[in-house]
Structure formats: C-alpha cells, structure tokens
From TrEMBL:
E.C. designation(s): 2.7.1.-
Transmembrane residue ranges: 47-65
Claim: Oxidoreductase is one of the keywords in the record: no
GO cellular component, one term: cytosol
Hexokinase N-terminal domain residues: 132-341
Source organism: Purpureocillium lavendulum
Occurrences of domain Hexokinase C-terminal (ranges): 351-612
Gene name linked to the record: HK
Official protein name in the record: Phosphotransferase
Amino acid sequence: MAVLKSQVVEDDFRGSIYSSLRLPLNLFVVVVHGLDREGDEHRNRVFVVLAALLIVASVLAQLVLHDAKIRLLQLASPVAVFFSPSPRPPARPLASPVADFLAPGPVCLNPAPFPTLPPASHPLTMALAAETKRVVEQFDFSDSDVDVHVKEFLRQMDEGLEKDGTSLSQIPTYVTGVPNGTEKGLYMAVDLGGTNFRVCAIQLNGDTTFNLTYSKVAIPAELMVAKTAAELFAFLAQQIGVFLKEHHAERFASNVQQSSTPEGARHENIFRLGFTFSFPVKQLAINKGLLIRWTKGFDIPDAVGKDVCALLQTEIDKLGLPVKVAALVNDTVGTLMARSYASTGKHRSIMGAIFGTGTNGAYIEKTANIKKPIEGEYDTSTGEMVVNTEWGSFDNQLNVLPTTPWDKALDLETPNPGFQMFEKRISGMFLGELVRLAIVDMMKNEEISLFRDINSSFNDWMTTTSIPKESGLLKTGGLDSAILSVAAADNSPELSTLRQSLENNLGVYNPALEDAQAFKAVAAAVVRRAARMSAVAIGAIALRSGLLNDPEEEVLDIGVDGSLVEHYPFFREMIYEALPVVEGIGAAGAKKIRIGIAKDGSGVGAALIALVAQQQEGK
C-alpha cells in the first residue's frame, strides 16, 4: 500500500514539474518569434527577459521538488521520532516531554529547496528513528517508579538515622537552628564543591540582604588526584591569601603586622571562615569533620579519614593569614541557611538541595529521631538539627534504581564504581557522559545513519557529515552537559542552534537535521529521568517533615541551587510534575511545596554558619 501511495506522489510530482516548466517554455517560443520580427536592436533586452523567466521556472521546480520530498518521506517513515519542533516551548512541560520527540509530524524538513530527486535512504532514516525511540524508552521513569523510589528513600533515611555505614549517611551537622534574616557581620567563606574553588567575603546587612565579593579559580586536574592532601590544601590557602590582598588589603596588612608581634593578631580582627566542603564527611563538631570518601572526580587517598578543617587551617597558618576556619559546611546545609536568611514572611525553609555538578540534600530533623550517637557538644534547646543526607549514594545496592547499559558503562568509568549511584543518574557531571555513551552506541549500529555521510543528502547544499578522531563525542567525558541545555532550548524548525553547537563544541562537521533530532530526543530523555528522580528525594523529605497535612503550614519552602535547576529549561517544572503522583502527597500536597533558588547558597550559607560558630564560642 505504501508503495502505491509513493507511486501516486511521484506521478503528482512529475506532473507538477511539467506544469511549472510549461509556461516559461511557451513564452520562450513567443519571444523567439518576436526576435525575428523586431530585429537585432532588441536582442539584448529579450535575452535578459528570457534569462529571468528561466530563473523563475527553476525556482518553481525546486519548490515542487521540496514539497514532494516531504510527502515521500512522510509516507516512507512509520516511526515519527523526527519532527518539526514548535517555534516556542510550552509554558509548562507536557505530561511527558519526551513524547514530544515521538509525536507524529513531518519528518526530515530542509530549509532550502532540495536540488535533486528525494534521496534513496528512507530505510536508514526509519532505522534511525526506531533506534532513537528504543534508546529513549530505556530512560523512561514512570509515575509508579517515582512512588516506589520514594518509599525506598524513606526506608533508607530511617536506616541512616539509626546507624553508620548505610547508603544514606544521614550525617548530623551540629547546626541546630536556621537564620531569620536579622543577622549582621562580615565573614568569609570558601567553597570546594567540584571543579572550581571559590573564595567569598560576605557582609550580612541584618535585613535579609547581603553584599558578596568573590573570586573563583579552577582546580588543576593534577591536584584532584594529588599524592598528598597537603598539595591540594596548600593551593586552597594560597587562593585565600590572594583574595585577601586584592579585596581587603588594608585589613589584611594590619592583621599580618599584628601577627608578627608577640601578642599576635587581635581575636576580633581575625576573619571567621565557613568552609563549604561538598564531599562525604563524618562531622564531629561544627568545625571538625573526617573525610569519608572523595567524589566528583577527586581521588586523594591521603586525605581520607583526616579532619579537613585542620588540613586547611594548617596551610593557612603556614602563610600567616588572619583567618580561622570556624565552621565546616556541606553545600546543601549552606543552601538551606541562605534560603532561610533571604526568605521573607513566616514560611520557614525545611530543606536545601543541590542539583548541579553533583547532587545532595539537607533537611531539618528532630534530634529525638537521630538514634545513632552524636559525638561532641551542640545546642539542645531547639530539639532540632540539620541533617546532611548524602543522598548521592541512595540505593548503592540497586534495590530499585533503574539501570541501563549506559548507566553500567558510566559507573565502570568512574574512580568509585558501585558508589554514588543516585548521583550518577542525576548530576550534571554525569548526564553528558550518559548521553554520549548512548549516542556512541547508536553510531556503532551499522543499520542506522547517525552522524554518517548517508545523511548528507538531507543537509543544506549537499554537504557531508563527518566526525574527526579528536571529537569530544569519541572521548570519555568529552560531552559537556551544557550542550543538553542547548538541545532543550532549541525549538527552531531546523534545530540550527543545536547543530551549530554540535559542530563548534563536539567537532561534528555539518550534522544533519536527523542527527540533531536524535541527539535532542536522547538528551531530553536522560534529563527528564534525572528531574523525576530529583522529585523522589524532594518528595520523600516533604513527607518526612510531617507538615503536608498541617493546616497552619501553607507553604513548604525548599531552597535549591546548581546549574541544572537554574539553567536547564523546565527542570523545576519536571520535578513539580512528578510530585502529585507520590502517595501521601497528591495534588493538594504538591501545591504546598515551593521550590526556590537560593542564590550564593554555598557562600552566604557558610558565612551564616561561621556566625553561628562564633556565637557558640562566646557561650
């Protein structure tokens, strides 16, 4: 039947060409007769007119060919993964954003008229569409999956509060209260949370506002796997010194001068510093914590089991800097503190979360529920303590976590296989690699045409697709997760921005529209799964708070930070979309949950905890 339809289209196609050319040919005959009558004096003018008519005829024929190409491909392709995107994204995502990529519609659109007969590569195009659909479906995370994972998350939360050595570490932070926005003072903060190191000075104004100055430097790759801890922490201390000299030169010089006297620097002139250290630690006090393990590409065995605050303080003292490491802060705890300080109204933030290079969360827990011993002193008057979940390691045993072949391959590439299994499915550090692994597997399939010359006939101006050996697409870790945001944001008919990004950032020369569509579909599926898994953690903690059914609590405020939740289009909306399906939350409970960005959470939050530590020193 498809062959008969195709034949009809081809007959119409030939008829259209004949019709488009018949008029200019008839005019040509008239013009020639005119030449015989008028003589040579009008010959040049007539030739100009004739040339114009032939150009018009050629353009008409090209347009007819282009329309015929689209109709032929629509008849030939039973799997409509490839589509013409809408010119603008929806205000909120549909029930299944990935389904957009699988919706019926015109296929293989081309911006320029097709210069020859439609290509004979339809079977390969259909194979690419079918393979893309197969890969996309493996990243599906259904409503029932969300609910099952929430139940398992709650179980592992309880387990972590009872004993050490569990998947969810549930680490007491010794922070027993959150700010209310009236705090004042000048404090420092440093943030070691991934591939960058940030140094900040924060002036708290006491009215929920603050002024922040900061500098940021990349961590040299060799220091992420240094032989000794001292190498890394000496580098961090040097950056603190550079920052003080640049931004607080007078106070720095005064304190250095005082430090050289027998009395030393005055206590009140020493900068109190909050150290945001976004790796698993066993916290023993507000300013003391032993490193449990490295994540996010760091691997320095010499530091494991040591007090990271003491390691930094030792290197600071070697440089004679007037700085005291007053508080050890996980970035999620800092996010919670910053959100609480900046929030207005009576709504208290119950949770801080990071969805960026890594992922983690901290929440307020009743101290009575923390069954395992809490070493060291802390303020017991509030009856609460902020707990650092370390949820990146949720379900390391893979009781419920979905595992595709590419999840397995990615895990084996990392320095810590078998650990941080939740994080490896959610965080920005790994999402790009997941997409890359899936795309490379598709490229190895001889039956499809992804990023191959066979698709060049669909490209503009008959150019050829090619990938050099040095392309990031062919290297482990070579696909930056930032391109996933580009793919999600590009809704142009020809995906021109994404195709340009594939060429500029990955070295894919002249990718075809079909290549970009397949890439966009796989990327969207990977990120949508990440967003819905993020909803698992948020939903579980919202349930544990016990406030969803409290009529006096109109809003459950959650502070979030990180590149994914800030910059990936509709990431928060995809989280919201998954919350109502959780048993115990439902539509009414989901409306109570408010997810807001906590700006400069790791810096401002760390400064606030340094302030808390200073207050405890005076007690």
